[in-house]
Amino acid sequence: MTQALRLHRAFERIWGTPRGWRGTLSTVNHSTLGVRLMVTAFAFFLIGGVLAMLIRAQLATPGSAFAGPDIYNQLFTMHGSIMMFLFAIPMFEGFAIYMLPKMLGARDLAFPRMTAYGWWCYLFGGSLLLIAMVLGVAPDAGWFMYTPLSSKPYSPGINSDFWLLGITFVEISAIVTAVDIVVSILKLRAPGMSLDRMPLFAWYMLVTAMMMLIGFPPLILGSILLELERAFGWPFFDAERGGDSLLWQHLFWLFGHPEVYIIFLPAAGVVSTILPVMARTRILGYGWIVGAILALGFLSFGLWVHHMFTVGIPHMALAFFSAASTLVAIPTGVQIFAWLGTLWAGRPQMKLPMLYLVGFFVTFVMGGLTGVMVAVVPFDWQAHDTAFVTAHLHYVLFGGFVFPMLAATYYWLGHVTGRQYSYTLGKAAFWLIFIGFHLTFFLMHIVGLLGQPRRIDTYPADIGWTGYNLLSSVGGFVTAIGFGLFVIDLLLQFFHAPRTRRNPWGAGTLEWAMMLPPPSYNIASLPQVDDREPLEAAPDLALSLARGEGYLAEPRNNWRETLAVETASGRIDHIVVLPGNTLLPLWTALVTGAFFVLMLLGLYAWAPVPLIGVAALGWRWAWVQGGKQPFGKLPIGFGDEACVHAEVQGSPGWWGNVFFLSANGTFFGSLLFGYAFLWTIAPNWPPPELLTPSVPILAIGVAGAAVAALFGRRVRALKGPVAGLAALFVALIATVWLLAPSPTSHAYGAVLAVLLGYGALHVALAILIGMFVVRRRGAGYVAATLGAEPRIARLWIDYALATGATALIGAHMPALLA
Amino acid sequence: MTPLLRSVSGLILWAVAFSAIYAIQGLSCALGWDAIGLGGPSLARSILIATYIVSVTILAWLCWRLRPSSGTRDFLAILAFASSVIGLLSTIYTGLPVFWLSICS
Ligand code: HEM
């Protein structure tokens, strides 16, 4: 044991979080941050739950005077927004942040400082919404914020701005976390863990995080456009001036429908992880499930118009989306059959997590059935915007997300606390939640079919809805009592339960191959993996890893080391040296927050200041990484050796930039879609006045882009390309400033301003990154000479010149042709 | 990374085909192509059907390209084949409306 203890002390010194405030604020440890995210998300769940109780209190009786329509609108908008953006997404993110490195046999995520930044952004953004609620100016236009309801003329107050800015702030956190998760799954795994040996949960999270990178940018774009309209009068959604409120609906549902699957997939991943353990067997059909979730990831994007059935879209377009809607049922079905088959093949035990999984099954399947009903167009015309839809969406979200997460809580609680589950309160909580939930929402199907619309604050006594609503409200309160018990149970568990033994459920995945609760560095050495369930073959893996009988067992240079593997095969690729605790994420989040607060307060002239601050902090963030001394190949154990990430081309940083830019590319693509959509579909087009085309400016820009594209590519020289980008920048700015019509007069000018502004911003960023790498190279940093930094700069330059040139040409062409 | 990309190429192609068909449908209505006759079907419908056939052909070719050698146990190769088959069937199914439904009303 002395060897294990010696290693523990040595690793704890490197990876631990110092005591006191400074440690709390500066930690970048994934276990700490994962738990923080989950606790914060649960707090938001409780707040959203209280709002739900207020809603049910209001609807319990006809003609209730408890809340007027104004307050009622705020209640359901905040309930929906909190549950979707501040509870569900951060909850599974926190869970993934905590769990993924442990399941994959790594010591942390790929970008620990980003993990911390993500949490702070979420906390601050969520707090903005809470402040709005306390001040009584909470958003009130519904969780999907349809324009024109959310536009200035109908929502003159600050309410909608709180939503647009607060949610966008939280989405920043979602994007950086998604990049963090994708790169960690693809690169930071234990040696030998090829993709087909990866735990299923990692596949689910890989698909989920990729979907977030594709799905969230349209929403962020929509929010930015709507905020620009509200703040500066740029008419993207105002039909009078060439805008179209359908554009908002497209952008929102491009995000919104995949969002449902983004929430469901991690929960399904939890089910696929817990269920085989409860059934004392392995999951059936691993390959089928991977295929199904990949298919689900793609097909779910083909559904967005499904939410717009009733807005007068041609039959053929509706039929495409109807077809896609029926199609996604197949991969979901494949998963359900895999689960049933696993239960069938195994010897299931009705332990507490299993009970919650049964709750999930029953509820989710019913939600699926009502989903098929609303996917049928004629039925949807009937049920659209009634309580039936509210009931359906809660069966799916509560059944598909809350029940699995409750199962996860009871399954992994001992992992977090290091204590053994020893109360029976969890069972009582289950029955209260289950019965309460079904009472509440089953009745809402019926009263919906009787015609009760959603989002009404009151209803007359004489149309026969009273009894259903009263019972439904009673059900709501029963659910709430169930959650009360659940909270008490958790507290008891934290403070009273005896210590747990290792691997209490006899599971096979790597997160159980460590001390409980897990130490800051997870594992004192990394295992060699040659099976999907490494613990099955080696039940004592935890001990041997703790004794240092694996990779990277000797701490060196005070480095936080973990291994990166080649994506598909899981062969060792290089050593990743992760950054230590720092206050940079907190500062960056605070300065980011300053931007959003200034926008909210309408101090637009000041808003660029924090943006410059973010750029400066970003510079520092990247600068403090790495050193000037090359190390060459270093020993990693078992006679193997590898370079550190600063000296390789395919470092996690490179991949992080690739995935960030793919999300960014989706943003740009959505913007082009918006431009094309307005031009072809919106009323009041063509615009009264087009841009004044200028061939010289166009030529300067295109020539600059060509120089940037062609020069220095082979030798990774950056100065030539940067000079080319500078010309492109000038052309873009000149086009907005001198040639384009005013952005306030017509949506055309507004779209051009955003398009050209986007191009100019990215060109400027690429110039900055290019200069950064030139400076680093001059200063002799290894990552900028031998490593990936020049390659990353090149990537940004290529992205910027492509988008910048597209924006420039896209702005000029129609005017030149006219 | 390339094997992973290959293993979703069929699905990516489905996404491209689906977006293309939807975009062409929207564009044709905006530009009035459904009113331009080409003897039989309108210009809009002809373009839609052509796009459909091209997409299905490409995906069928992809399935053929990615067919796993018999007895292979390479997970990603099987996955690549499976996703191209899913992509093909999905394209055939989601694109079917181009043949008969009214395009612009
Ligand atoms: C205790 C459990 C819950 C109860 C009693 C409850 C109750 C309600 C009710 C009555 C409405 C309809 C308001 C109206 O249309 O007038 C509603 C709306 C909504 N709820 Fe829940 N809810 C619960 C949990 C959840 C959860 C866990 C989620 C998501 C993860 C969620 C997401 C939503 C959304 C998105 C809306 C639509 C808001 C809108 O129309 O803008 N709810 N909820």
UniProtKB/TrEMBL annotation, chain A:
A Pfam family per the record: COX1
Organism domain of life: Bacteria
Domain Cytochrome oxidase subunit I profile: 9-530
Gene Ontology cellular-component annotations: plasma membrane
Cellular localization per UniProt: Cell membrane
Pathway(s) this gene product operates in, as recorded in its UniProt entry: Energy metabolism; oxidative phosphorylation
Similarity comment text for this entry: Belongs to the heme-copper respiratory oxidase family.
Gene Ontology terms: biological process: electron transport coupled proton transport; oxidative phosphorylation; respiratory electron transport chain
UniProt keyword annotations, A-Z: Cell membrane, Copper, Electron transport, Heme, Iron, Membrane, Metal-binding, Oxidoreductase, Respiratory chain, Translocase, Transmembrane, Transmembrane helix, Transport
Membrane-traversing stretches: 33-55, 75-98, 119-142, 162-188, 200-226, 260-279, 286-305, 317-342, 354-379, 391-413, 425-450, 470-492, 575-597, 603-623, 658-678, 690-710, 722-740, 746-774, 795-817
InterPro entries: Cyt_c_oxase-like_su1_dom (IPR023616), Cyt_c_oxase-like_su1_sf (IPR036927), Cyt_C_Oxase_1 (IPR000883), Cyt_c_Oxase_su1_BS (IPR023615), Cyt_c_oxidase_su1_bac (IPR014241), Cyt_c_oxidase_su3-like_sf (IPR035973)
Descriptive protein name: cytochrome-c oxidase
MF terms (GO), sorted A to Z: cytochrome-c oxidase activity; heme binding; metal ion binding; oxidoreductase activity
Lineage of producing organism: Bacteria, Pseudomonadati, Pseudomonadota, Alphaproteobacteria, Sphingomonadales
Reactions the enzyme catalyzes: 4 Fe(II)-[cytochrome c] + O2 + 8 H(+)(in) = 4 Fe(III)-[cytochrome c] + 2 H2O + 4 H(+)(out)
SUPFAM superfamilies according to UniProt: Cytochrome c oxidase subunit I-like, Cytochrome c oxidase subunit III-like
CDD domains from the UniProt entry: Ubiquinol_Oxidase_I (cd01662)
Annotated EC: 7.1.1.9
Automatic annotation (TrEMBL), chain B:
Protein name: Uncharacterized protein
Entry keywords, A to Z: Membrane, Transmembrane, Transmembrane helix
Superkingdom of origin organism: Bacteria
Transmembrane stretches, start-end: 12-33, 45-64, 76-103
